[in-house]
Amino acid sequence: MSKRTKKVGTSGRLGPRYGVRIRKRIADVEAVSKGRHECPKCRVVAMQRMANGIYNCRHCGARMASSSYMPTPPAAIRRELKEVLAKAEGTEAEVEAVEETEELPKEQPEVKEKPKKRVKKAKKE
Asked: Is residue 76 in a domain?
């Protein structure tokens, strides 16, 4: 039997319904979510999605909770990564940031006066 969904992938089950853009987005999301990912514990590409936001490593058995479609590193790891990258760049980035702030004077926001309200005068008869 031939492969019927070569171009569209897993969204071929939808047929002509829902439009091309939506079917392409579904195919992209499903390709990412159904694929294997790198385990943050053992660094092997063996992490699979078990359920919505739950991932299990087939190599070391680690389980973790993350985003729905793709595992993302926890906030603490992202923060540490930013700190390490900042240290790797050295103080050059800090010096550049200070120089930029010194060169540009802070502008005061302009205060606009409110227009005066027009009062309608009663007509004299």
From this structure: yes
User: Per the domain annotation, does 77 fall within a domain?
Assistant: yes
Task: Give the whole-angstrom CA distance, residue 26 versus residue 66.
Answer: 20
What residue type is 44 in one-letter code? V
Total of domains in the chain: 1
Three-class SS state of 95: helix
Does the predicted TM-score (pTM) go above 0.70?
no
Model pLDDT for residues 85-111, shown as the tens digit of each residue: 888 887 555 545 545 555 545 555 566
CA torsion 72-73-75-80 (nearest 10°) is -150
Residue 16 CB: number of other CB atoms within 10 A? 7
Q: What is the pLDDT of residues 23-39, one digit of tens each?
A: 999 999 998 888 999 88
Cβ–Cβ under 8 Å, residues 65 and 52: no
Residue 125 is assigned to a structural domain of this protein: no
Amino acid at 45: V
Q: Is residue 31 part of a domain?
A: no
Q: What is the DSSP letter of 12?
A: G
Give me the domain span that covers residue 95: 72-101
